[in-house]
Design goal:
Elements lengths: L5 H10 L4 E5 L5 H10 L3 E5 L3 H8 L10 H9 L3 E4 L3
Parallel strand pairs: 1-2, 2-3
The protein binds nicotinamide-adenine-dinucleotide.
Length: 87
């Protein structure tokens, strides 16, 4: 059987929902992005150097006005979202 290319493997994982997605920087761009991926069923790892942001997210609290805390809490409680300062 012909060896599958890395890009093909990655595309397949995205298509079948088994890809684990990493987002670096959980600010105005990264935070809505991780919630978008979680809402589509992906396992997501969010990374930020700001310990306060990671603590807020783990506590299910938003720090961006238009993002409700409930959607953060739901993502964390579902086990689909993990956040860390550790690369
Ligand atoms: N108001 C809005 O809805 C909106 C939406 C999009 C963008 N913006 C604007 O665009 C700007 C850019 O948005 P952004 O999301 O790129 O920036 P941001 O400043 O909102 O977020 C960047 C994040 O990356 C983290 N970070 C920095 N260095 C890092 C590193 N080495 N490793 C891991 N994490 C790191 C920071 O701690 C921060 O949480 C914002 O400051 C904002 O002014 C606003």
């Amino acid at each position: 059987m012909k060896e599958m290319k890395l890009t093909d493997q990655t595309l397949k994982k995205i298509e079948n929902g088994s890809a684990v997605i990493g987002v670096v920087g959980l600010g105005y761009v990264g935070l809505p992005l991780i919630l978008g991926f979680v809402s589509r069923g992906f396992q997501v790892m969010g990374i930020d150097i700001d310990r306060k942001k990671i603590d807020s997210l783990r506590a299910g609290e938003s720090y961006i006005e238009h993002i409700p805390s409930g959607s953060i809490a739901e993502a964390v409680e579902s086990g689909k979202l993990e956040v860390t300062t550790a690369f």
